[in-house]
Amino acid sequence: MTIHLPTDLKKRVEAAVEKGQFASVDDAMAEAARLLLREIEQTRPAHPPGDKNNASLGSIGAMRNAADELDEIVVDVYARRNEPWREVAVE
């Protein structure tokens, strides 16, 4: 794997190695990857969109945590269903 860092980051990593904080640039990058992956794992949702727990919900799965908003939509739809303009004369 080849990693290309911006010059400022490259210099900072090399300085950390020179100070003895890491045995090598590879060790520093391995630690950086560990920290990044740990951060990603801690901040990701418990069930990412599209996972098997959402499969049965279809597109509504994205709103599984929006129950209040869904309730408001349903109430609004029921309130509008008896509006006179909705009745269409069919001949």
Question: What is this structure's SSE topology?
Answer:
Layout: H1 7-18, H2 25-43, H3 67-80
Instruction: Name the helicity range.
Output: 40-55%
- Mean pLDDT over the full residue set: 76
* Structural shape: rod-shaped
Derived structural class: mainly alpha
Please describe what this structure looks like.
With 91 residues, this protein is an all-alpha fold. The protein has a domain at 7-43. Helices cover 49% and strands 0% of the residues. It is built from three helices and no strands. It has helices at residues 7-18, 25-43, 67-80. The longest helix has 19 residues, at 25-43. The termini are far apart.
Q: Nutshell version of this structure?
A:
This protein is mainly α and 91 residues long. Helices cover 49% and strands 0% of the residues.
List keywords for this structure.
91 residues
